[in-house]
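hey m, so remember when u said the tokens were messed up on ur end? i reran from scratch. heres the input so u can diff it against urs
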Amino acid sequence: MKLNLKVISEVLSAVKDYLFPYEKISKKFLKINNEDDLINFIKEKSAFVTQSTLYGYLKTRMGLKQNMMFTDDIFIESVNKAKWNIFSEAVTDLTFFAVSYLNTKHNIDILNPNKIYQTILDNEIINGLPNEMCEKYKLKFKEKLNSFNIKEYCSDKPFSNSCNALFHWAPIADELKELDKEIVINSIKNKWMLVVADFEKIPVNLNN
């Protein structure tokens, strides 16, 4: 089984370029005046975290070709599967965090997290999110909503789902992932810290 590193390099570059245009995100979120603004923030910041951590991890591990037993097509498929699973979990985490944070810090209780989540995932189908995966994660979100504590979520390890998803879904050999676990988890935690810092600075004008 021959691994074509040139093709994989091109695939990774494509992932970086097309997955989500996160370079422009910091210029777009000057305030949150309505639910649509919040939906855009959650979608694009989740995309930023997904792309930057998945791409960074794959790029770091690409040199160990003897441990990446993929043909080109399988590698491409694995990257695509990973990005949508991680993104779906990232949206879960950030939706719950945002709703919880806005409630505890701004006393906002008009938001419907399930509506926000479904809107984001449904809009990504046109970008390649598989329908079956979309429906699976919408169902998982509803189940998690049953135990969602709006007052405590934002301060109680709010991004654990996506941290675990990056570790689980990244198309890297299991023996390497075990060696990398702490670094991988910390990398995505650090990205989420940047997102939280941005969110805390944005003026919010959502009316109850």
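this time it looks ok to me. The mean pLDDT is 84. if urs says something different then somethings off w ur setup not the seq
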